């Protein structure tokens, strides 16, 4: 184990850092010096900052070569007497440079903070104090720029009991650019810890951040676009505020991600940050949706949707939050929710290469592609939240506080059905379906299965271009109560907008059996595409889960699965031959049960009089029946390929459970002969 004294050529870790900073940056820079920084002085300063970064990196590399590992008691043993004061002076010296007019100086100082964090990480107590000081800097800077200093900090500064008295002077002149850089530093530290097994450090970071976030007067940011919330006369203030807001959103996204990744981190700190972030979401939407930032609006819409998605996954949203966020979706994303999902052109050009912003395209093309991505994300969240409201009454920990009866008893199903939250979810979903499903699908005469299949095809095609969301949304459909077995006996059922009727139509439009049938048809019954999904690093787990759940309900509802196929129902093919999803990897083909995708004997063609009903825009695509034989050939070919790969130990994980489920499917298929 490397001790604190062993990291350099003598002295403690903090004292050596202090000597290094004093050597290259001998004094804190005043505001006047930073504003009047000449080109020559800026170059000289950048050289000093670069030398500091390189030296600390050399120290860190030396630690790695020596194999230094933090001991379990290092947090209590490696912070020596006087080190806390030296560390305070180091941070105060560096923070003063964050007010520099030069963006290159600010960026280089931020890099120094990041390499210091990496260097101190093996020395727990010193790193913990470093993180604490950095979060206090953010809190003080925010309070100063908003002209609001909490009384607790004022008292501490007056009594000289803490680091506040040493830092308050350099933070009195905080700028939006400086605060934005602190946010970038914090996000960089979060990314350093993500994916590590250092749960203790993650807990320390979350602890400091949670305390910091709860003390910042976020309500005062409501006037961020007003002239009175500013640093006196600083140039580029609007751009600085924009940078601050972008870094804030990015930090929150990263923090929520690391909370989800590090399951063993301190639960209290996790919950505090999650709830605090939930409270900030409505404010973020207000702050970001302004005319001054219209050129970057798509970015903010994307990031806030990502943040809401991560929060939805990592915490149990209560009734009031779900209803509030649905209102926010309608207020800020209504254009995306109301846009048709069937008119979206689905081709290879409708993909996003890791981001909704592709620099090779012009602004109009970027806007169009990012809108498609945002539309999918918005619809996914809308469905997730409405279904969560609908299913609240099913959970044993049901805690609806939205106008439910005082006599509520969890076992009383009738009272649960009368809950405002459930009705709200049903009405929200029903209203959305009315805007996207043709009126002759949901009508007073009942439900039309052929039109249900057409809607299901459009829905799957809508998500086909983004695999991660495709399987997320398909798995979400399993939360809907399944009443599809009543469909064939109640074709003439009338719609009266009651809870049962809405659930009835919803469960048929989004029935997992039907969606699975259509999903296989959209893949043209090509088992190689399913195999590509299963071995994908990004979606392999979700695809395996989806197939397992689908195969279970197929086997449990075999007659219904066959019934969907024997009816002459048509599915529009949303991909032309050129635009169809292509195989991403080459696998060994299996001849067992393989479908001849070039053959047309099983394809059903639309008659001329019906072609108009199935036009997508001005372009007509071919169509085919839902085929039991097609599904059989695809899934049995998949089973054969899985067996071969697993036998050769070439499959990335154990597929035996999936193979057993496919064996059961094969047994049922044999009954069709």
TrEMBL record:
<dbReference type="Pfam" id="PF14695">
    <property type="entry name" value="LINES_C"/>
</dbReference>
<dbReference type="InterPro" id="IPR032794">
    <property type="entry name" value="LINES_N"/>
</dbReference>
<dbReference type="Pfam" id="PF14694">
    <property type="entry name" value="LINES_N"/>
</dbReference>
<protein>
    <submittedName>
        <fullName>Uncharacterized protein isoform X2</fullName>
    </submittedName>
</protein>
<feature type="domain" description="Protein Lines C-terminal">
    <location>
        <begin position="632"/>
        <end position="667"/>
    </location>
</feature>
<feature type="domain" description="Protein Lines N-terminal">
    <location>
        <begin position="450"/>
        <end position="563"/>
    </location>
</feature>
<dbReference type="InterPro" id="IPR024875">
    <property type="entry name" value="Protein_Lines"/>
</dbReference>
<dbReference type="InterPro" id="IPR029415">
    <property type="entry name" value="Lines_C"/>
</dbReference>
